[in-house]
Amino acid sequence: MTLTRRHFASLLAAAPAALAQPRPRPNFLVIMADDMGFSDIGCYGGEVATPNLDRLAQRGVRFTQFYNAARCCPTRAALLTGLYPHQAGIGHMVNDRGIPAYQGYLNHHCQTMAESLKPAGYSVMMSGKWHVGENRPHWPLDRGFDQYFGLISGASNFFRLDPGRKMALNNEPYTPPKEGFYMTNAFTDHASRMVREAPKDKPLALYLPYTAPHWPLHALPQDIEKYRGKYMKGWDQLRAERYERLTAAGLIDKRWPLSPRDPEVPAWNSLPQKEREEWDLRMAVYAAMIDSMDQGIGRVLNTLQQTGRLDNTLVLFLADNGGCHEGTNIGGGLEKAAKSPVPGPANSFTSYRRPWANASNTPFRMFKSWVHEGGISSPLIAAWGNQIANPGSLYHDPAHVIDIVPTMLDLAGATYPSQRNGNPLTPLAGRSFAPALRGQPLRARAVTGWEHQGHRALRQGALKIVAKHNQPWEMYDMAEDRTEINNLAQKDPDRLRGMVKMYEHWARQCGVEPWDKVNPPKP
């Protein structure tokens, strides 16, 4: 019998699935900046040199409405688990406040990306800042990672480990060498080593959360020198320039005006020359820290290329919260104890403060820890070989950090079980944004909620309600006014009441408690 083309096609269609050639599962590289504003990097309107991130954006897609959870620990918990922070046990920071949603380490009702991807055959590595469990058995290897290097704690000196902070190599405490150590480079070096040493027969997932550009302002001299004098133009002009670039690129809508300068920030032109020079140096060091991080990202991407993995690696880049306003009371007194008042070297300890954070968050208002757009809006770059439908494009549907784990599981063909070690798992709160990589719309989420230190918000479609701790609710139309200038609360009180009820329902589901109960005022 002679096989016709039609017979041959029908035989192929009926062939066992085992004979088909499956598309290789992607590798994953998830990179997160620490305390970086929406408009700091080049491809999001910034003037800081970030050529490696810019190249990722050129061959990938940039999300214009991607959200984090307003602060470091909550965002990290959400990124690792696909749950809202309170559901994972980290409604605040790493101190245990005696309430399940605020216990300060990942609970037994969540599963990390590592614990979900390892059963699917992945090698799962991490190099960088953990900050979701200070003590064993709540370190990365305890929660599924195969290898770990980095800072267990929050912020630390970039040239040495501050007293009371913890670093680890796998499950052992790590002390940096006294000479030649710079935190950003160390994270990069270990991430590159992990890529080189990863088993060739397994897909790889690498989580790379840098501490840059979180305070203290520490950078290498050659990187600082690139930016000295470039910020003498001041924050007012910088915000205006970034706003123009953001609107020209389509990253923000021209209908949204630039938010007014923060009321606690002076006009640049009102400052004497000496103060301007001091402020210029602060921002120069901050920019140098981002520049150094971008250099490191380039080195990790080169290692992925050299090991033949890059073309099939989904690279994601985001920030854990908006620019940080924090000033003189940082590091538990380390700023006051620092020997040098000049930012940059190891014997200094300071931040870039509210005025420059206001510029970092252009065009939005408010900062890290608040849930106005300036606190929760993040860049998100997604690049994946030739798998992105429209390279260099923008994607405007909202997405959230809780969506990262579901996206990884979706693309990896991994399942999320109903229990872990006999403990029932909270169902994933996020949903895959894999359709966005193909240029398709995302399935609408009923609501998205936020709470941190009593600051609270809820978004449904284009409408958002938001309030500072112990302050009245505000309401904004995100389609018309994402810079949150035209408060609609008094114009539509019925809609406001309905959304407040939605927020209260979301908060009960997630275990949110009133902040004054979690953090009682001192007598």
Structural topology:
Layout: H1 5-14, E1 27-33, H2 51-59, E2 61-67, H3 72-81, H4 113-117, E3 123-127, E4 147-151, E5 167-169, E6 172-173, H5 183-197, E7 204-209, H6 221-225, H7 235-249, H8 273-306, E8 313-319, H9 334-337, H10 353-360, H11 373-376, E9 377-383, E10 393-395, E11 399-400, H12 404-412, E12 419-420, E13 423-424, H13 434-437, E14 448-452, E15 455-460, E16 463-467, E17 474-477, H14 493-510, H15 515-518
Parallel strand pairs: 1-7, 1-8, 2-10, 2-11, 3-4, 3-7
Antiparallel strand pairs: 2-9, 4-5, 5-6, 8-9, 12-13, 14-15, 15-16, 16-17
Describe this structure in words.
- The chain has helices at residues 5-14, 51-59, 72-81, 113-117, 183-197, 221-225, 235-249, 273-306, 334-337, 353-360, 373-376, 404-412, 434-437, 493-510, 515-518, and strands spanning 27-33, 61-67, 123-127, 147-151, 167-169, 172-173, 204-209, 313-319, 377-383, 393-395, 399-400, 419-420, 423-424, 448-452, 455-460, 463-467, 474-477.
- It has 523 residues and is an alpha/beta fold.
- The strands form three sheets. Strands 1, 2, 3, 4, 5, 6, 7, 8, 9, 10 and 11 form an eleven-stranded mixed beta sheet that branches. It has a four-stranded antiparallel beta sheet with strand order 14-15-16-17, with helices on one face. Strands 12-13 form a two-stranded antiparallel sheet.
- Strand 16 and strand 17 (474-477) form a beta hairpin.
